[in-house]
From TrEMBL:
Bilayer-crossing regions: none
Name listed for the protein in its UniProt record: Protein kinase domain-containing protein
Record organism: Helobdella robusta (Californian leech)
Gene name, Swiss-Prot/TrEMBL: 20213980
SMART domains linked: TyrKc
Subcellular location: Endomembrane system
Alphabetical list of PROSITE patterns matching this protein: PROTEIN_KINASE_DOM, PROTEIN_KINASE_TYR
GO molecular function, one term: ATP binding
Positions of the Protein kinase domain: 1-249
Length: 263
């Protein structure tokens, strides 16, 4: 089970104005102070329109807070599961996918592995038109070909086979998770592998099983999803290549749209 750091709504006084912000505080049940400081230092260096912006750090009553912009629409997972979310059209799901793919391309260029890419960690703007990646508590900078972890809190349903088998993270481990993120989009927030328990997911992934095609997912998008799930990480596309594939499909959308849905 993963327990997240505590996030509170706060008011920041800035240039004589009161701004609503989000304040994330250290949770000593799951995170060391060193890990929290590492997340803060990483967030300082990130500037992308689809990554939640860190405003600063403050301390109150012996508590350290990381202050970020607030995304009033809440998590993408929650949004997709609501009535407004289930009414989203395929072209809008594509736009969400492209925004997050853009953020992941930016991280890939910086050799950063997010390690927890999922709809629950994507936030939605007030007007439901901007989507931003958040929660860098597990993120790492790769300074070699892989990073090995002994941490037990692995999001199994989103995890690549190299993580499940040996705890090793590569730069393209996030690509696998992005494929599962696309499943979340095209199932409107359903849990991936919803008919499997965690042990069945682990065994299925390691044996080469791929997530089934969501009912509302165009065949062309499922091809892109499936490319993310190559067992060997070096055979997976880069995020830049994924972005190009999604853009190509978006341009042809409505012309070559096909699905395997049985109505």
């Amino acid at each position: 089970m993963i327990i997240f750091n505590l996030i509170e709504l706060a008011i920041l006084e800035y240039n004589g104005k009161n701004l609503f912000v989000a304040a994330k505080t250290f949770n000593n049940q799951t995170t060391t102070m060193e890990e929290f400081n590492t997340e803060i230092e990483m967030m300082k260096s990130l500037r992308h329109p689809n990554i939640v912006h860190m405003i600063g750090v403050c301390r109150m009553n012996d508590c350290l807070y990381m202050v970020t912009e607030i995304m009033a629409g809440g998590s993408l997972q929650k949004f997709l599961r609501e009535d407004k979310g289930t009414a989203i059209q395929i072209k809008d799901l594509l736009n969400i996918a492209l925004q997050i793919c853009g953020a992941m391309t930016y991280l890939e260029q910086k050799c950063i592995v997010h390690r927890d890419l999922a709809a629950r960690n994507v936030l939605v703007s007030k007007n439901h038109n901007v989507f931003k990646l958040s929660d860098f508590g597990m993120a790492i900078i790769l300074n070699k070909n892989f990073f090995k972890t002994n941490v037990c809190s692995i999001p199994v349903r989103w995890a690549a086979p190299e993580i499940l088998s040996s705890g090793k993270y590569h730069l393209k481990s996030d690509v696998w998770s992005f494929g599962i993120f696309l499943v979340e989009l095209f199932t409107y927030g359903n849990e991936p592998y919803d008919d499997w328990n965690l042990q069945e997911v682990r065994e299925g992934v390691l044996n080469g099983s791929k997530h089934r095609q969501p009912r509302s997912c165009p065949d062309q998008i499922y091809v892109i999803m499936s490319s993310c799930w190559c067992l060997k990480h070096t055979n997976r596309p880069s995020f830049d290549e994924l972005n190009n594939s999604l853009e190509t499909f978006k341009k042809s959308f409505g012309i070559y749209l096909t699905t395997s849905v049985l109505l």
